[in-house]
Amino acid sequence: MPRGDMPVAAGVKLGPYEILAPVGEGGMGEVYRARDTRLNRSVAIKVLPEAIANDPDRMRRFEQEARTVAAINHPNILAVYDVGVQDGTPYLVTELLEGETLRERLDRGPVSARKSVEISSQIAHGLSAAHERGIVHRDLKPENIFLTKDGHTKLLDFGLAKATAAAAAEGKASSLTMQTVQTEPGVVMGTAPYMAPEQVRGELVDYRADIFSFGAVLYEMLCGKRAFAGDTSVEIMTAILKTDPPEFNPEVTKVPPALDRIVRHCLEKDPADRFQSARDLTFALGALSGPESSQALRAPVVQSRSWLVWALGAAAILLLGILAISLYFHFREAPHSARMEFAIPVQDEVGHIALSPDGSMLAYVAVDENSGDGVIFVQPVGSPNATRLNGTEGATYPFWSPKNDYVGFFAQGKLKKIPATGGVPQVLASATHARGGSWGKKDVILYSPESGGPLWRVDADGTDAAPVTDKSFTVESSHRWPIFLPDGDHFLFWSGNFSESPNDHTSGIYLSSLTDRQQKRLVTLARSNPGYARNRLFYVDLKGALVQARMDTEIGEVSGKPQIVASQVGRHPSTYWSAFTVSQNGTVVFHQRTGSSQSQLTWYDRTGKELGHAGDVGILANPSISPDGNRVVFDVADPNAKNIDVWIYDLPRNASTRFTFDPAEETTGVWSRDGKTIAYRSASNDQILRLKNSTGFEADQGLAAPPPGVLDIIPNSFAMDDKQLLATGVITSGGSNLQVVSLSDKKVSPFLTGRGNKADGQISPDGKWVAYESDETGEWEVYISPYSGGGGKLQVSRGGGVEPRWRGDGKEIFYLDTKGNLVSVSVNSEGSLSTGAPTVLFQPHARATVSSSDLFSYDVTPDGKRFLVDRYVKPAQTPPLNIILHAVAGRE
Asked: Taking the domains of the chain in order of start, what are their residue ranges?
């Protein structure tokens, strides 16, 4: 093994790492490109030279760097993989970066204001993560900042970093309260041009020293010259102590006044006059970031508009940035807990939202305009830039890990997790009709896998899945929307029977724990997911207002009159989910609407050519064409999500007519074979299945109530003689199967049960077969079974399929594959049943489903030549997200 000044030769192995080539020199050693022979990946290795390896003090610093950086997991900080010693030579293994240091970039001249804000925002996020772990860098400079080829910024070389005293005792930072770092008296550590005045004087330093260094780096990016000049280190240090940096030269870089104020605020001589945390700094910088910055980090691309609309939008965002910066400086002398409320414009339709525990990051579901599926984006609070998490297509109900490094979500009938910086999603458990999840500090995930049934728990690695809440449901029909409290043991959840009556005193928000599993009702007049922050319970009341109430977690009681946080918050009546999220520090983000995507019934031919529209744009679902092809029954949700009703569209007259009128939710209309009757699902009373004459002029009648063990019944299709109805039964203990309803005696009987979930049963035109979807193999596929019973089945789809529909003559089945493509399969029922190979027709870009009663996004005409698709429509304008900082301010 070469030592001293000799380089390490290619081919030499340090443990399992094979040296490939030198890369450069770090602050404390030479850096090499290497290959991890176990995982077959490229890494970087920092090797200490002999002079440092034999120096106990330098070795201590090396070990400190390894421990320090390994304790932080953040996309803007160099990731440490391993540390080892080979033949007395210590080495550090990190991720391999491709790009250049900020110093190398500055050697070519100053950086534009826009690009400087983009880079410095990422630096600030990295510092914030380090500070929250109790770590002060103390040597922030362009040489220790790396710009990757893919547009990311990484902080390097924490060799001078030191954990605060409090964090060293606990192994982490317990809060953002100012801590100090003590070096030996009179010892100056750092690099002269970027040291804070307190560093120059050899005094105690805290997080604010890094903020001063940050200001010096940002100043240099903007003008290409150092903030504090001098021929010697002594002259530079004197300038740091006594002078201010020169004003920016507008001929070199045009620096907006708000950005200039941020730089000056960072470079205040007195630490008390600077930004008091890196998080405050990230917020101020985020307000300056416009839509023209970093395309790699933007939310989904917006279609081009006219120059006038673009100019107005740019002006609005500029005004928003100026307003946010002005508000920050106006309130910076106010107490840290001062409540602030403002709206953040969003350019894409935002659905389910989740704040990280520390309130710094927002995960949300936005609709992919190409596929119509929901996709998760992660966005720093206060910034317009968002990162798309590829692999989350079809996602619902995101939630954060306690360390803000992972996002949990539900998609394709599974509970999954994905790194917040992007990566490959990992499946943790099955969750067919999920209703929320929460990740506690003990690395346990609580989740509701079905629309009815108990809450479950699973370890964050996907092991030990088991029910948590009581399985017996004598009164309650669903446990959902779990939220862990800070101790990682107690949790809140909603439990109820979906009654909208004010006399319902069983539904509401409950408190329980992983250890004793006792359930205590806290609030009855709540029909939403709960939130918690600083001894406050948040929920949406029966009037649609977001309120908070004082909560004693020790005795499990809510006291005092609830106080309104926001007068109107979006709520989805199908799921009792409300569009708000709360972080542990009291930040609240909410939507005045649910974010349910809009759509329009759109005609296509078999090639995917658009032929026209049926009706207006709205929040639609479950289109079903009448047997004669002249009418369409479909669901329409109120824009304020107060109710859902069944409507009928008359195709020859081009007119829509409301079919149901109950204030409760009514969905999923299904035509009888003769077209004279419509069966639909109602949440108004015990008779969940109801019948009504399709003319709409006769009173409806109750058809069936759920039998024991069945929570909900959703109609699918009528039998040939219209004397039976095939339906999907949502099982109380979780999952779904197929049920047969007799119209004569209103009896409900199991049809297809057994392994896996089964749903969406469609009886063939000749009445002999049933096409349905099931996840019995672990993935949803389309199958055919005899309607007369007798067992046996034939798999129709290949590689995943849902939403089966028959052609009018029974010779073809259509379904949607996992990519959202409409697929055709020929069916031969002469003799023994057989099917042909699946053929992809086109991608209909259907609207993503938002509830368990959203079964179908399309239907086909009897001749199989035209398809009516509930096609996603991007709104011309999207309502803003509303943010409240310190929502519990003044209410302690």
From this structure: 13-95, 100-286, 343-527, 599-872
Q: Output the CATH code of domain 100-286.
A: 1.10.510.10
- Kindly tell me the sign of the dihedral angle through the C-alpha atoms of 717, 719, 722, 723: negative
Whole-angstrom Cα distance, residue 579 to residue 362? 13
Q: Which of 36, 139, 760, 775 is flagged as catalytic?
A: 139
Contact 378, 361 (CB under 8 A): yes
CB neighbours (10 Å) of residue 886? Answer: 21
Report whether 159 contacts 139 (CB < 8 A).
Answer: yes
> What are the tokens at 720?
């040939």
Instruction: Tell me the angle at which helices 207-223 and 278-286 cross, rounded to the nearest 10 degrees.
Output: 30
Please state, in angstroms and rounded to a whole number, the distance separating the CA atoms of residues 860 and 605.
Answer: 10
- SS3 label, residue 575: coil
- Given a cut of 50, whether residue 238 has pLDDT beyond it is yes
pLDDT at 185 over 70: no
Whole-number pLDDT of residue 848: 63
pLDDT digits (tens, 9 = 90+) for 353-412: 999 998 889 999 987 766 667 899 998 876 767 889 999 988 999 999 999 999 999 998
The one-character DSSP state at 433 is: T
Instruction: For residue 122, give the H/E element and its range.
Output: helix 113-132
Amino acid at 531: G
pLDDT, tens digit, for every residue of 131-169?
877 788 888 999 999 999 888 899 987 654 454 433 333
Report d(CA 137, CA 154) in Å as an integer. Answer: 13
pLDDT of the residue at 250 = 77
CATH for 13-95 is: 3.30.200.20
**Residue 460 has what pLDDT?**
94
Q: How far is it, in rounded angstroms, from Cα 369 to Cα 846? A: 10
CATH topology for 599-872? Neuraminidase (2.120.10)
Region of 157 on the Ramachandran plot (φ > 0 left; ψ -120 to 50 alpha; else beta): left
Q: Is 139 a catalytic residue?
A: yes
SS3 396: strand
Q: Which of 92-96, 309-313, 448-452 has the lowest mean pLDDT?
A: 309-313
Equal fold, 13-95 vs 599-872 = no
Q: Can you tell me the distance from the alpha carbon of 350 to that of 250, in angstroms, rounded to the nearest whole number?
A: 39
Q: Rounded distance, CA 266 to CA 219, Å? A: 10
CA–CA separation, 185 and 883 (whole Å): 45
Q: d(Cα 506, Cα 457) in Å, to the nearest integer?
A: 24
Task: Place 170 in a pLDDT band, splitting at 50, 70 and 90.
Answer: very low
pLDDT given at position 889:
56
Three-state secondary-structure class, residue 551: strand
Q: At what angle do helices 307-331 and 278-286 cross, to 10 degrees?
A: 150
Residue 253 has pLDDT above 50, yes or no: yes
Report helix angle 307-331 to 257-266, nearest 10: 30
pTM above 0.85, yes or no: no
Query: What CATH code is assigned to 343-527?
Result: 2.120.10.30
pLDDT in tens, 551-565: 998 888 898 889 999
List CB contacts of 369: < 8 A, sequence separation 6 or more: 300, 845, 872, 874
Cβ(744)–Cβ(704) below 8 Å: no
